[in-house]
Each structure stands twice: as C-alpha cells, then as structure tokens.
Design goal:
alpha+beta, 29% helix, globular, binds zinc ion
C-alpha cells in the first residue's frame, strides 16, 4: 500500500491509500477518485520540491521564502496577492528545476548526498517518501497549485 498526497481542482489537499501507483492511475482514469472536501473528481498528485540549502543557492530569490500552501478554506477564491506569489514561485521552480516525476525521492536523495548534480528538481512523491526524506534531513514541500490550472 502506498499513500499519495492529492489535491483537487479547488486546492483541497488530502491523502489516500492505493495498492500501487498503477491502482492510483486506474482509479483516476475511471473517475473513481473524488475530493473528500468538495466531491470534485478533478484530482491530481501534489507535486513536491525540495528546499534548497542556503549555501547552495546560486540565483533567484523566490526560493528564499517559504512556499505558501493554500489552506482548505480558500475554495475557488484565492487572494490576488497570494495568487501572484504562487505564480512566481511555481514559475521559478519550472524555470530552474528539472521535472523528475516519480523518481523525485530518489533524485532528491542523490542530490542531497552529492551523488548527483546539484540542481533544483520537482516531481511526485508519496507521503511516506516525503517523510523518509525529512527524516534524513532533506526538506521537501508541496508546490502550491493555481486555481486557473484546474480543468
Ligand atoms: Zn476539493
């Protein structure tokens, strides 16, 4: 069993257990997943990104700030200022990071232990993977999602 951090189109975050990654894909494809808060069927895995250690920052300032995550109570309306911050953070991550998909935990670990080129990455991780990374001193956090990205 694996547990994924999920997020619906309205930004509600929740966790769900699946037999496997394939079981998750299958349930999404068949429309069997729904948000526990609002019932929306537009569900995706929350993307995770590691915090960049202070000593290795090379450019940009967006990573200096903690990444805001949208509280459940926002619904579809995020304050304009917050949307702008989220947009900039996400753009910064996309411009400066490699998408590594479900190899996220493995790559974050390799970079942390300097077995892989030091760079920004983002991708998908299970709750368990995120917890293990944190146990090893590798901070990861979910990337906030914009309401306009809902489909
Ligand atoms: Zn929802």
């Amino acid at each position: 069993m694996i547990r994924f951090a999920l997020r619906c189109q309205r930004g509600h975050e929740f966790e769900a257990w699946f037999r496997s990654g394939d079981a998750y894909d299958d349930q999404v494809a068949r429309g069997l997943l729904a948000c526990a808060n609002c019932g929306s069927g537009a569900i995706e895995k929350a993307l995770m990104a590691p915090s960049v250690p202070a000593s290795t920052r090379t450019k940009g300032k967006a990573v200096d700030r903690p990444v805001p995550s949208a509280p459940d109570s926002f619904g579809t309306q995020l304050p304009a200022g917050l949307v702008e911050v989220i947009r900039k953070v996400r753009q910064h991550v996309r411009d400066n990071s490699d998408y590594v998909g479900d190899r996220f935990a493995e790559e974050a670990r390799r970079i942390h232990y300097e077995e892989s080129e030091r760079r920004g990455i983002y991708g998908e991780a299970t709750i368990e993977q995120a917890r293990q990374l944190r146990d090893e001193g590798i901070e990861v956090h979910p990337l906030p999602k914009l309401p306009e990205e809902a489909n």
